[in-house]
Description:
CATH architecture of the largest domain: 3-Layer(aba) Sandwich
Largest sheet: 6 strands, parallel
Shape: globular
Number of strands: 16
Amino acid sequence: xxxxxxxxxxxxxxxxxxxxxxxxxxxxxxxxxxxxxxxxxxxxxxxxxxxxxxxxxxxxxxxxxxxxxxxxxxxxxxxxxxxxxxxxxxxxxxxxxxxxxxxxxxxxxxxxxxxxxxxxxxxxxxxxxxxxxxxxxxxxxxxxxxxxxxxxxxxxxxxxxxxxxxxxxxxxxxxxxxxxxxxxxxxxxxxxxxxxxxxxxxxxxxxxxxxxxxxxxxxxxxxxxxxxxxxxxxxxxxxxxxxxxxxxxxxxxxxxxxxxxxxxxxxxxxxxxxxxxxxxxxxxxxxxxxxxxxxxxxxxxxxxxxxxxxxxxxxxxxxxxxxxxxxxxxxxxxxxxxxxxxxxxxxxxxxxxxxxxxxxxxxxxxxxxxxxxxxxxxxxxxxxxxxxxxxxxxxxxxxxxxxxxxxxxxxxxxxxxxxxxxxxxxxxxxxxxxxxxxxxxxxxxxxxxxxxxxxxxxxxxxxxxxxxxxxxxxxxxxxxxxxxxxxxxxxxxxxxxxxxxxxxxxxxxxxxxxxxxxxxxxxxxxxxxxxxxxxxxxxxxxxxxxxxxxxxxxxxxxxxxxxxxxxxxxxxxxxxxxxxxxxxxxxxxxxxxxxxxxxxxxxxxxxxxxxxxxxxxxxxxxxxxxxxxxxxxxxxxxxxxxxxxxxxxxxxxxxxxxxxxxxxx
Length: 665
């Protein structure tokens, strides 16, 4: 039996799948059942919902974690095919932070000797992200490095300057890949490539897959990438029973690696389709509005009125628009709507918007949470203290230590007020970042005797550690255990410190193979990585459960926040802004040309770019509307924050006529 449960968000697809899993487990056991889910959060959620005492082995994976597990288990079969044959017992798996850092180093090295990347308005770290994205997208779309190179150069067309830059980018990607293979260090792209090239072509491995799994369950088929679909197709054809779920309204996934169009083309003819029409979490009228917007844009039909658009806010000045938006939000709050059931979505959130909304709403006793405000490790006091104390204990590194980070660390560790911590910070900088003696400064009375005792302890502690040759991860652990843990850290503080310790362990394991970085300098380079803004510098955001706040977000952050399943009301701001229409293509990366759909046209021009911008915007709006239940407010101003006239197409589409709209007087 091969079944696909197809339906919108909240129609019970995952519940159907979970029930089928429990049924299989109760009769056949779960040892022979493979479950593939969309992400790590879904994996944890799935495990929570099954009775572990009655189940057998839980083979619940994301595609990425399954591939990593299989490569670890069958590594000798893979390594014998690599240059040099058997050299390692196990491969080293590289996390995204370390791969980003290494790629950044290759880009920086290139820029030292050439000026090819100078015309690109991106930092080395940003260029590195695009190169990693190229490798990852190629792997997810079953493309070789040779095919990746071919498509990138076709994309450049006759632009000679772009061809030169892309050739340089291709050379860096090849150097990075060679480093990974030679040192048996696997990033995401190499893992997927090796799995597809060496295991999924191995007859003995395929037979073992048949023997191991008799049942296949796949949640969110529309989110799966082509390389995952390759595995799923093999299992579907060889398992006794297969059950999959598919959301026909999630068109957004094709802009983030998933390929719903290919999934439907490949799997629907092979399976029985069971339609689930009713949704328990999303509004039917919201989805109808989303469908109507699509028809307006691509089929030249009028926007049909269904009453989901509650009001249109129009102002000449942007400040007035923001104030009128707040007034409408306050009306909803006074009617009893919970703050966290209201989401304000804008294509770009600038400081003026954030400050204005926070100011007006805070004056009425409400708070706003900005999902786009990324939290960096250097901004969290405890993880910042880890780095600051590390630099104080290693003066030979000659690393840059900022005044504010030292002052904040002294305030935290010594529990000093800002004035006293600033006074001490001045003296420490005068003393070349060595903690001076308080008696010589005659500071004991200034900072207090209790604080002086803490300072003396910190001074002696740092002197002792400067004489010891400690691995950085061990030093971090000592700092946390002996200096920070007595300060009652919050869950966020503990998470940030744990992330630091885990990251440095993985970082050193990989980077010690990088010849340009001496082993004794690995610790300093790790701190540089955090301060220079590579991906490791950010921590996962946790939605605050204890406080209800009005959500402020861009479309992307709203859609991919794991903590927001639905809201009652949406406010779309700046609907005539061109920022809604951002291109998916960057200077060195274009996911469209790496997709299977590209083969049908084999070209890239302005018309294609504009068409994809429209498709991505409509997919975003459809997905956002699928998370709303009660209504939508539209807000716009004739002039943007710079005083320029706005002329975005979204405004025109939404003005096509909804009978539920009530304009401002």
